[in-house]
Amino acid sequence: MLRSGSTLQYQLAVSILEKTGRGSGLGDPRNVDCLELVNATPPGTMQVLKVHKFKHLGNVEVAIERGQAKCLYTYRDVRDVAVSLMNMRKISFEELMFRNKEVQQSLDDFQAWTSLDRVLISRYEEMIDDLPQEVGRIAEHLNVDLSETEAIVIAENHTLDKQKQRIQQWQTSGNFNPATHDGKSLLHHNHINSGKPQQWSETLTPLQIAYLESLTRTWLRDRGYSLSQPSYRHFASQLWYSRYELMRKMERLQHRFQHGI
Prior knowledge:
Layout lengths: L5 H15 L2 E5 L4 E2 H7 L5 E4 L7 E2 L1 H6 L5 E5 L2 H12 L3 H8 L1 H13 L4 E5 H6 L1 H11 L6 H9 L3 H12 L28 H4 L2 H17 L8 H28 L3
Parallel strand pairs: 1-3, 2-4, 5-6
Helix pairs in contact: 1-8, 8-9, 12-13
């Protein structure tokens, strides 16, 4: 899921494979075929790649059913996903919800990824709270023997401070480009804000929180996240924000009329 520690999860998996000589990382290629990657991987080794959208990795279900691939997935409180996306993209709540619509896309992809077999599902809040345990879980999922000491070393090399250092080192290197990310770590220059859970409670307004909760209440409850706003505010937020959806529809109609579509 976007802004849910997927880069960290990718880094941990790559570190495990590199430390044990079992494989390496491919970064985040787009629109690739999983079966082609499997065929290009040297026998006895593994390669890790990072993908957000399910549609960007073709034939992943087939590769998993054949036992040729495994999936690692991490998710987060969608209210924090919204705040993190707003911070990173430097956009308003309204732009996020009605122009980008990345929150809904994330939930659609959540359903697709977590429905696969051979998938290790990690909760962001638990992952950052105990990184050594997460390293161990990933190693076990990949059938890689890793000692407790090795897991701790890998975890300590991926703390929040270490990640900030990586970003600083990249920014001062000759390869820095603010329009993209570091090719090895996959970190952006504005990748990290605070990383803390429940930022939404301090950042979003009650009406914004209520609107997000009204759209995702079932998902939140099923994942064990508590709702913070009363039902009447959920209803009121739907009425309030319905005007933004109407404005977007009007913009699309105007665009089609102006361009003769």
